[in-house]
Design a protein that fits this description.
The protein has about 220 residues and is mainly α. Helix content is about 75%, strand content about 5%. The protein contains 9 helices and 3 strands, in the order αβααββαααααα. It has helices at about 10-25, 35-40, 45-60, 75-100, 105-125, 125-145, 145-165, 170-190, 195-220; strands at about 30-35, 60-65, 70. The protein has a 3-stranded antiparallel β-sheet with strand order 1-3-2. α4 runs parallel beside α8 (about 170-190) and α5 (about 105-125) packs antiparallel against α6. The longest helix has 30 residues, at about 195-220. It is elongated, with a radius of gyration of 19 Å.
């Protein structure tokens, strides 16, 4: 995290920088944060830091830990599973709608995102893999034509990103994810609404099982 220059939206920029550090795993669960230290690290006054920390508490990324002060919230297996249940429902609904209105232009964009994802896998850079994965699912939401799906999912994506950053790591899983994404694209291109919905739901359920299983291991090692 580098110092930030002073601008009217400085508290938002501090918030976004802290959020990125938490979701990427740079700031681990249980890490103690103080206004003074963060203000010094960012090169700003305490006021924007206070505002950013208050918002991050409301969003569930920071907690008050008694004598320890404010800390990065712990990762929770059941919360992660709940997130994937919600995502599976939204992904399925989006895919069903997208299949009915999938144009050649959307098909081209989908294939481009698939190529980006596979290149990210080949690079071995986990943050790029996660970013490509999120972009793929946001594309399906957009293709649905129903903006409320993306708006409903929006508050949950950073929590999902945090789960993926903590638990996603093995190259064979990263490859299989994009094989499943390709299957979803094929169903969309063929206009197979029920198949696209089923594939998206199944994909989310499988990822929930795999990632929550790995998350249990991560949490146990950190304890």
């Amino acid at each position: 995290m580098r110092p930030l220059t002073s601008e009217p939206d400085l508290s938002e920029r501090v918030h976004d920088a802290l959020l990125d550090a938490i979701c990427s795993g740079e700031l681990k669960a249980g890490t103690r944060l103080t206004q003074e230290d963060l203000a010094q690290r960012f090169g700003v006054s305490r006021q924007p830091v206070l505002q950013a920390m208050m918002l991050l508490r409301r969003e569930g990324f920071l907690i008050d830990a008694g004598r320890k002060g404010v800390c990065v919230a712990p990762l929770d297996v059941q919360t992660a599973r709940n997130l994937y249940v919600v995502r599976g429902a939204l992904d399925g609904a989006a895919a069903r709608l997208a299949a009915a209105r999938y144009t050649p232009h959307l098909a081209q964009r989908g294939r481009q995102l698939l190529d980006v994802g596979r290149r990210a896998v080949a690079s071995g850079h986990i943050p790029s893999v996660i970013e490509a994965d999120i972009d793929f699912h946001l594309f399906v939401y957009e293709a649905s034509g129903n903006p409320l799906i993306g708006e409903t999912a929006q508050p949950h994506w950073q929590h999902l990103r945090r789960v993926m950053a903590a638990a996603l790591g093995e190259s064979d899983l990263r490859v299989s994810v994009w094989d499943e994404h390709e299957g979803i694209l094929r169903a969309l291109e063929a206009g197979q609404a029920a198949e696209a919905e089923a594939l998206c739901r199944g994909h989310a359920e499988q990822m929930a099982d795999i990632l929550t299983g790995r998350l249990k291991v991560v949490i146990s090692h950190a304890a």
